[in-house]
Design goal:
The protein is an alpha/beta fold. It has helices spanning about 55-65, 80-90, 105-110, 165, 185-195, 210-220, 230-235, 250-255, 285-295, 300-310, 325-330, 340-359; strands spanning about 45-50, 70-75, 95-100, 115, 140-150, 175, 200-205, 220-225, 240-245, 260-265, 270-280, 310. Helix content is about 35%, strand content about 15%. The strands form two sheets. Strands 1, 2, 3, 4, 5, 9, 10, 11 and 12 form a nine-stranded mixed β-sheet that branches. It has a two-stranded parallel ribbon with strand order 6-8. Strand 1, helix 1 and strand 2 (about 70-75) form a beta-alpha-beta unit. Keywords: Signal.
């Protein structure tokens, strides 16, 4: 199903996240005057924030949660926007649970005391270092690689290094680039590039080479077309390359008849591990904890993996994942990224890129 292709450097990523409107966002049916607002009623509506509700995931979760007896309202936003929203609301929380964000964003929420520690019932079924081993504030659900992809049926000149996509004029306009830095994947792409060019004496801790690469990447790429899938553009010959989370490859190969090749560097590709946590100050804290116990369980994560070609972190759910997905992630080396360092600098990096390179 997956063509390995030339495995070199992956530096970019773009998958648009569907946004669901927030309506009726009262934080549950609890009485703030009772002194027990943190417990929450068993029939309270849980406001679930996520950036992982696209491609039918939100609808699937809504249906499964209802069957399990949970009344939830899903609010979907891009990763950075969602993180900023939760931080802005921390003194008067609206949401009860947040999931789908990666370590980078959860580190920001943790630093702002916007999420609360809770050890879920399945904590011993996931690797301790996959979430927040220091404090147990957030816990891992799903992991996937972010890879630069192309169709082996049409591309015969994939570069030996994905930096060439940005710097070699032969590839100008042939790769898709997502300038929406309010989303999780484009921010991770930026972090993946810049963490390879750190320089304590450089601008914002990055060398000139790093900033020149980023500038070229945005200048020479073909911007995402809103509402148009990367593989639709590849099939029409509009672009040849783009970035996609690994979980989306199989479905697109089936839909578009492509044979996906990947460009993977020796040092690895960025991985995202989607996490979950209770929002600090939730009016339905106990019910939110019960929801997390359910969501991260081997049963639910196994069903999710089977439905969406995902790779669960819960070891009890791995058997339900597609063997080819398991093999793919075993094969792809993981890029080492210091998410704590990135979270401290990302805001400044995004601001510079937005003002100077995207406009």
């Amino acid at each position: 199903m997956f063509g390995a292709g030339k495995k070199k450097l992956a530096i970019a990523g773009a998958t648009a996240v569907a946004v669901l409107a927030l309506s009726g966002c009262a934080g549950g049916d609890t009485d703030a005057d009772t002194g027990d607002a943190g417990a929450g009623a068993s029939d309270a509506t849980l406001i679930v924030y996520t950036n992982s509700n696209s491609d039918g995931r939100g609808e699937w979760l809504q249906a499964q949660a209802e069957e399990a007896g949970f009344d939830i309202e899903i609010v979907g936003l891009g990763g950075a926007d969602l993180t900023n929203r939760i931080i802005a609301e921390k003194n008067n929380p609206v949401g009860d649970v947040v999931f789908g964000l990666n370590n980078m964003f959860f580190e920001q929420l943790k630093a702002e005391d916007a999420i609360a520690a809770y050890e879920p019932s399945w904590s011993d079924e996931v690797p301790a270092d996959a979430g927040d081993p220091a404090d147990g504030v957030y816990w891992p659900l799903v992991q996937q690689a972010i890879v630069t992809v192309y169709d082996e049926n049409t591309v015969t000149d994939a570069p030996s290094d994905t930096d060439d996509l940005a710097t070699d004029s032969a590839y100008a306009g042939r790769y898709e680039v997502n300038p929406a830095l309010g989303q999780a994947t484009p921010q991770l792409v930026l972090a993946s590039m810049l963490t390879r060019h750190l320089d304590e004496d450089g601008d914002l801790g990055v060398s000139d080479d790093g900033w020149e690469l980023v500038e070229a990447y945005y200048a020479n790429g073909s911007p995402v077309v809103e509402g148009t899938d990367l593989y639709a553009r590849i099939s029409r010959g509009e672009v040849d390359y783009g970035v996609l989370p690994s979980s989306g490859i199989a479905a697109r190969d089936e839909e578009y008849g492509t044979t996906t090749g990947m460009i993977v560097p020796e040092y690895g590709v960025p991985y995202v591990t989607e996490q979950v946590s209770v929002i600090n100050g939730s009016a339905n804290e106990q019910r939110a904890q019960e929801f997390i116990d359910w969501l991260g369980s081997a049963e639910v994560q196994g069903a999710f993996a089977a439905e969406f070609n995902a790779m669960p972190v819960n070891e009890g759910a791995v058997a339900e994942a597609d063997p080819e997905v398991v093999a793919l992630l075993d094969e792809l080396p993981r890029q080492e990224i210091d998410f704590g360092f990135v979270s401290e600098h990302l805001g400044d990096w995004v601001e510079k890129v937005t003002l100077e390179y995207i406009g």
